[in-house]
C-alpha cells in the first residue's frame, strides 16, 4: 500500500514539474508535505533537501556567479567578442564557443547567457547578422561548457553530492573535464557545420533597432478605419530613406510583417505600425496622417499614451520569474516602477489585444514603455531580462579583481581538497558580501528560488523511491529487458532515459529521480556506480531538443524568435550524437568494472 501511495505522489509531482501548472516552489513544498503526512518519510527525511550539501553549494555558487557579473569581472570576455568578431558570423560563432563555454565551465550558465544576449544582439545589428542564427548556439555552448567541471552546472553538483550521501567519495572538481571537453568539441563541430542550414532566418524587433538610438523612440501607431492612410501603399507613406520616422514592422491581426517585405502592401484598417523616430517626427506624422498612438497596459486598465518622452525596450520573462502564471493586469508594474506594457510576443507572435487577462509564460517578450529609471528598477528585480546593451548595467569594476580572486580561490582550494566545496563556496559568498562586492539584497536576489526549492523537493522523492522499494521494482523490470544485453546497453539506456525525462521536466529533478536507480543497478550487476552517475549528469544536462528542459533554452527563445520546432529540428540530432558519444566514451574514462 505504501508503494502505491508513493507512486501516486511521485506521478503527481512529476506532472506538476513537467506542466508547470504550479510554480516549482509550490509543487516542491506540497510534495514534501505529502511525503511527510502520508508517513512515507519522517519529518527529518522529508525536509532533508533543505539541509543537503548540494542545495547549499548550488545556492552559494549562484551568489559567486552574480558577483562576477555585478562587478564586471567578465567584461574582458565581452570585449574580446566586440573587438575580434569583425562582422563575420563564422568567426563570431567560434568566439562565442570559446567565451561562453569557458565562462560556463566555472559559473552558473544562466547569468552567463543573460549577460551575452544583449551583446549578441548588438553585434548582430552592427554586422547585419541574424540573431536567430546565434542565440541558440549561445545556449548550447553554455550547456556544453557547464559539463566540463563539477561546478559548471547545478546538475553536476547535485550528482556529486548524491554520490557522497550514498557513501561514495564524490567527484573531483575537474574529473568531468576529459569527457566534457570531448562533448564540447563534438557539440561545437555539429553547431558550426549545421547552424546556417537548420536555424531560421528571423529578426526580432529588438534586433532591428539601431545600436545608437540617441533621441529616437519606438512606438506603435494604429490606423483607424477613417484614417486617410487606408488603401495607400506603404512605401509612399514611409519610404526607407525617411529619417524622422522609420517603419520597423506592421502587426496585422496576429501576423507580424517586417518593413522590408511590407513596403509594397496597401495599408488596411486596424493595422498597427511599429515605427521608430524622433518625438517631433512621430508627432508630425500622427497629425498629418490621422493615426493614433496605441494604448498600453497601465496596471488594471488600458490608457492612451500621452507622452513621447519615454523609452521603449523589450524584456524577456525569465523561466523562474515570479511573473510566470500571473495576469498582465495583476503585475502592478506601473504602480511599482512606472513601467507600462505595450505588447507581448510569444513564440514569434505578437499579442496586443486582451493583454490584461493574458497569463505570462517563461520566454515571453514584453514590449515595455518607461523612463530610464523605470527600466533600471525592473531590471534590478531579476524577474525579466531587459534586452539592452551590457553597458547599461551598473557595475562596480573596482571590486572585480576581488570577485574573480574569490572564485579562483574556491576552485583551487576545492581541487586541493583543503575543505569540502560546500564550505568553500559558502565562505566565498560570505566574503563577497562582507567586502561589498555584492549587496546582501543582491545576493538574495541571485538565489534561484525555483531551482533550490525544486532540488529540496526532489531529494525526498529520491529517498522515497529507495525506502518504499519502488526503485528496486523499476530496476528489476529494466534489467529484464536490458540485462541480457550487457552493462554497456544498460549504461546507454540510462543515458537515453535520463535525456528523455530532462526534455520535459527539470534536469535537476531528473537527476535526483534517476540516481537511486543507478545505485541499485550497479549493486545488482556488481559494477562501479560512477559511470551510471556520469551518464545521469550528462543525460540530464545535455537537453537540446526542447526549450523546456534547460533554463537557458527558454531564455533565448524570445529574443531569437524561436519556436518549439526550431529546438526540435536543431537540437534532436545533437542529442542523438551525444548519446552515441556518451555510450562509447563514458566507459573509457570510468570503467564499468
Topology:
Blueprint lengths: L1 H18 L4 H14 L5 H4 L1 H4 L1 H18 L4 H10 L4 H16 L4 H19 L7 H12 L7 H12 L11 H22 L6 H4 L8 E6 L11 H4 L7 E8 L2 E4 H4 L9 E6 L1 H11 L2 E2 L1 E4 L2 E4 L6 E7 L15 H5 L2 E7 L2 E3 L13 E6 L1 H9 L3 E3 L13 H16 L5 H14 L5 H7 L2 H19 L2 H13 L4 H16 L4 H19 L4 H12 L9 H10 L3 H26 L4
Helix pairs in contact: 1-2, 2-21, 5-10, 5-18, 5-19, 5-20, 6-7, 7-8, 7-9, 8-9, 8-26, 9-11, 9-26, 10-24, 10-25, 11-27, 18-19, 21-24, 22-24, 23-24, 23-25, 23-27, 24-25, 25-27
CATH homologous superfamily placement of the domain at 209-392: Regulator of K+ conductance, C-terminal domain
Residue runs with pLDDT of under 50 for 5 or more positions: 206-215, 305-309, 389-394
CATH class of the domain at 209-392: Alpha Beta
CATH level-two architecture of the domain at 209-392: 2-Layer Sandwich
Mean pLDDT over the full residue set: 82
CATH topology annotation of the domain at 209-392:
Alpha-Beta Plaits
Q: End-to-end span in angstroms? A: 37 Å
- Identify the strand order in the major beta sheet: 3-2-4-1-5
Features:
single chain; 593 residues; alpha+beta; Alpha-Beta Plaits; five-stranded antiparallel β-sheet; 27 helices; globular
Fold and architecture overview:
This protein has 593 residues and is an alpha+beta fold. Helices cover 57% and strands 10% of the residues. It has helices at 2-19, 24-37, 43-46, 48-51, 53-70, 75-84, 89-104, 109-127, 135-146, 154-165, 177-198, 205-208, 234-237, 259-262, 279-289, 333-337, 372-380, 400-415, 421-434, 440-446, 449-467, 470-482, 487-502, 507-525, 530-541, 551-560, 564-589, and strands spanning 217-222, 245-252, 255-258, 272-277, 292-293, 295-298, 301-304, 311-317, 340-346, 349-351, 365-370, 384-386. The chain has a five-stranded antiparallel sheet with strand order 3-2-4-1-5. α5 (53-70) packs antiparallel against α18, α10 (154-165) runs antiparallel to α25 (530-541) and α11 runs antiparallel to α27. The chain starts with a helix and ends with a helix.
Amino acid at each position: 500500500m505504501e508503494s502505491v501511495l508513493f507512486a501516486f505522489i511521485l506521478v503527481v509531482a512529476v506532472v506538476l514539474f513537467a506542466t508547470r501548472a504550479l510554480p516549482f516552489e509550490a509543487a516542491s513544498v506540497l510534495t514534501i508535505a505529502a511525503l511527510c503526512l502520508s508517513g512515507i518519510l519522517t519529518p527529518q527525511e522529508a525536509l532533508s533537501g533543505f539541509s543537503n550539501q548540494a542545495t547549499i553549494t548550488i545556492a552559494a555558487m549562484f551568489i559567486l556567479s552574480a558577483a562576477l557579473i555585478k562587478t564586471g569581472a567578465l567584461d574582458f570576455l565581452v570585449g574580446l567578442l566586440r573587438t575580434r568578431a569583425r562582422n563575420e558570423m563564422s568567426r563570431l560563432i567560434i568566439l562565442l564557443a570559446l567565451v561562453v563555454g569557458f565562462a560556463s565551465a566555472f559559473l552558473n550558465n544562466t547569468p552567463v547567457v543573460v549577460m551575452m544576449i544583449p551583446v549578441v544582439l548588438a553585434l548582430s545589428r552592427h554586422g547585419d547578422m541574424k540573431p536567430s542564427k546565434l542565440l541558440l548556439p549561445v545556449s548550447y555552448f553554455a550547456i556544453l561548457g557547464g559539463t566540463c567541471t563539477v561546478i559548471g552546472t547545478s546538475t553536476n553538483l547535485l550528482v556529486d553530492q548524491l554520490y557522497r550521501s550514498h557513501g561514495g567519495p564524490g567527484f573531483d572538481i575537474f574529473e568531468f573535464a576529459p569527457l566534457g571537453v570531448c562533448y564540447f568539441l563534438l557539440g561545437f563541430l555539429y553547431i558550426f557545420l549545421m547552424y546556417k542550414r537548420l536555424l531560421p532566418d528571423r529578426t526580432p524587433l529588438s534586433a532591428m533597432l539601431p545600436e545608437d538610438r540617441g533621441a529616437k523612440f519606438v512606438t506603435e501607431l494604429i490606423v483607424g478605419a477613417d484614417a486617410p492612410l487606408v488603401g495607400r501603399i506603404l512605401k509612399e507613406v514611409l519610404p526607407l530613406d525617411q529619417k524622422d520616422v522609420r517603419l520597423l514592422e506592421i502587426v496585422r491581426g496576429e501576423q507580424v510583417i517586417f518593413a522590408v517585405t511590407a513596403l509594397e502592401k496597401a495599408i488596411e484598417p486596424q493595422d498597427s505600425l511599429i515605427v521608430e523616430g524622433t518625438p517631433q517626427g512621430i508627432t508630425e506624422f500622427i497629425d498629418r496622417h490621422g493615426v493614433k498612438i496605441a494604448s498600453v497596459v497601465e496596471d488594471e486598465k488600458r490608457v492612451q499614451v500621452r507622452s513621447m518622452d519615454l523609452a521603449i525596450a523589450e524584456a524577456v520573462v525569465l523561466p523562474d520569474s515570479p511573473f510566470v502564471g500571473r495576469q498582465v493586469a495583476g503585475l502592478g508594474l506601473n504602480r511599482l516602477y512606472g513601467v507600462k506594457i505595450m505588447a507581448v510576443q510569444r513564440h514569434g507572435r505578437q499579442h496586443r489585444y486582451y493583454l490584461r487577462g493574458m497569463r505570462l509564460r517563461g520566454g515571453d517578450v514584453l514590449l515595455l514603455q518607461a523612463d530610464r529609471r523605470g527600466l533600471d528598477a525592473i531590471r534590478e528585480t531579476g524577474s525579466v531580462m531587459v534586452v539592452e546593451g551590457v553597458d547599461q548595467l551598473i557595475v562596480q569594476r573596482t571590486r572585480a579583481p576581488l570577485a574573480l580572486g574569490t572564485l579562483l580561490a574556491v576552485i583551487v582550494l576545492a581541487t586541493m581538497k583543503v575543505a569540502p566545496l560546500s564550505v568553500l563556496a559558502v565562505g566565498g559568498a560570505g566574503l563577497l558580501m562582507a567586502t561589498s562586492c555584492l549587496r546582501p539584497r543582491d545576493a538574495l536576489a541571485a538565489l534561484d528560488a525555483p531551482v533550490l526549492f525544486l532540488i529540496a523537493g526532489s531529494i525526498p522523492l529520491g529517498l522515497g523511491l529507495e525506502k518504499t522499494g519502488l526503485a528496486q521494482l523499476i530496476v528489476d523490470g529494466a534489467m529484464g529487458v536490458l540485462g541480457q544485453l550487457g552493462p554497456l546497453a544498460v549504461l546507454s539506456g540510462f543515458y537515453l532515459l535520463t535525456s528523455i525525462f530532462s526534455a520535459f521536466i527539470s534536469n535537476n529533478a531528473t537527476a535526483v529521480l534517476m540516481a537511486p536507480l543507478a545505485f541499485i543497478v550497479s549493486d545488482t550487476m556488481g559494477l562501479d556506480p560512477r559511470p551510471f552517475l556520469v551518464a545521469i549528469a550528462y543525460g540530464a544536462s545535455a537537453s537540446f531538443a526542447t526549450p523546456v528542459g534547460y533554463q537557458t533554452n527558454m531564455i533565448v527563445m524570445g529574443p531569437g524568435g524561436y519556436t518549439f520546432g526550431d529546438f526540435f529540428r536543431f537540437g534532436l540530432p545533437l542529442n542523438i550524437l551525444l548519446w552515441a558519444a556518451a555510450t562509447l566514451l563514458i566507459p573509457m574514462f570510468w570503467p564499468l568494472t
